[in-house]
Amino acid sequence: MKFQIPIGPQHPALKEPISIRLTVEGEVIKDADLRLGYNHRGVEKLAEEKSWIQNIYLCERICGICSHSHATCFVQGAEKLLEIEPPRRGVYLRYLVSELERIHSHLLWLGVAGHEAGFDTFFMYTWRDREVVMDLLEMISGNRVHYAINTLGGVRRDIDETLRGKILEGLAVLKARSEYYFKIGAAEPTFVARLAGVGPLTKQQAMDYCAVGPMARASGIDRDVRKNDPHDFYNEVEFDVATADSCDVLGRTIVRIKELFESYKICEQILRKLPDGPIAVKAPRRAKPGEVVSRYEAPRGENIHYIVANGSDKPERLKVRAPTLANYPATIEILKHGFIADVPLIFAAIDPCICCAERSVELVDARSGEERTLRFSDLRRMANDRARSLSLQRNVAWPL
Amino acid sequence: MFERVIRWSRKKSPWILHLNSGACNACDIEVVAALTPRFDVERLGVLLKATPRHADVIVATGPVTRQLRDRIIRIYDQTPDPKFVIAVGACAMSGCVYRGAYNICGGLDQVIPVNIYIPGCPVRPDAILDGVVKLLNTL
Amino acid sequence: MNDEQKIEKLKTFVSPEAVAHPASHRIFVTVAPSGLVTLVERMKAELDNWYVITISGVDKGESYEILYHFGDTTGSITVRTQIPKADPRLPSICGPIPGAVLYERELQDMFGIAVDNLPDPRPMLMPDDWPAGNFPLRKDWKFDRPAEVIPGGEK
Lengths: 400, 139, 155
Hints:
Chain A is an alpha+beta fold. Helices cover about 45% and strands about 15% of the residues of chain A. The N and C termini of chain A lie far apart (about 50 Å).
């Protein structure tokens, strides 16, 4: 007996279609399987027909939350192929927008995690504070998402003294609010109990399944492109890589909150040390034949673009690997040992961005072969009911 | 007389279904941001529902990928009459940058009939509110 | 381990002229498909914090060039192999490193390369009604764009 519940919004944020099939025995998941491809748009084939400048705008629209990551990764590679070097001020502005984007993405994720854990007030608070960052980005670039601030050879818009002052004010407000969220994460026993122990991924599993980003860092692996394979800019600012040892969803939350504070530090250093000068250099139209590997640390993990040029004004091959795809094998491994009711939280904890966060989950009973489809909202309700019935653990180890 | 009451209630509280047909997520985040305290679309009576059978208005984003085409038509059929479709964003209007890709059908109007188009890439939440209000005024 | 030490080590795994160092933090190694799995096992044993970043394929006309991008603590190492178009087969590296399964499935979908010993050989990305035998990223694959219907008609 199988009925399909059609695609519809189960949770307010991040709805891209993907379907998971879980084989269950009672409440325990025995096997998990993903069906990707609902969001496959053929970007790599399209990129071969567009020029270098047009590809910046195409790469931006691969993802809506980390759009600047894809654009910057592409532009870093294209500038090496075109053999141009952007001026210092342009580089600083480019990475200022990168860090502001990281802040907005982590605040978004905190809201989603709060919503999945049943904490809707937290969701509303964090998204209200996110509007501070969106306003700053709109003042710098003119748009809330898809900033289009990169160009071959630098950036397109400059900031002046008043804008610099406003950014510093906005960051001060956000810092005070983030300390409040840190306290909620640390001292609120229900929230901590809801997240602790859910979705464990040991360090060896994270290494075998090649996890990237906060997923890997929450399992104790020190893996961050900004330290391992840095662009020259990151050698001039001081920051630390945030890791945690608890290997569960609580660890991933802590890693992201710590990264918020590191981003505030980096933004303040950029604004203090901003050099004078031009913001862009002129770029040639054609690139000499060659290839380049460009890596970048997006809010969700490591982004890689591999570009091959053949001497004309269009790339020969563009290969993009977004960070969420790298976290899928690890997610399937986590799901295999979990409970049905934990599925929304585990899935939200990988911070799904591209081809992820689905609507319907199909359950196959391992013994009888019967299938039934559940909606995410049902799963969320089951999870929160179960959590309420467990007794509060007051001595949960805080992974600091 | 009943007609007037029904039309008034339909105008004052439209329930929406949010549908993502292969988009990059920016428009979806802006639709969700319309629910947050700064823009707050719920004060107009709009409620985000999870299933098409309860919805009056389908808010759809994204260029339509081939895998999702049949499912979108099925969702449209499952929504009870009278229903309205809002196409949000440049992707749902005509495909945006993905026009001509092998896995894309083009805009949303190649698949289901659309009542209102809201342009933008991505659409600002204020524009979404404006579009919803304009739709309600035609009722 | 910095770049020079890694290059010395890699030169002992393959021949010295197969290792190139075009830019800082970037090392390129060329190997034949038969020597791929042994090289991967040796790299996993000797390098720390080592993982697969992604696997790319490039259509070079007469052959496919497959690049395996690996990352570790101080940069990236890219391993390059060539396979002929007439017989596109590759061994799978999911034995030593299970996280590479999705990238190899993508190669199967996009180029039509057969990967041996894949733990999960189903197609991944294409829609259910995709006609078999169509591999979009091959250079000689063309498709007709369907005509657009404008609702309301063109006046």
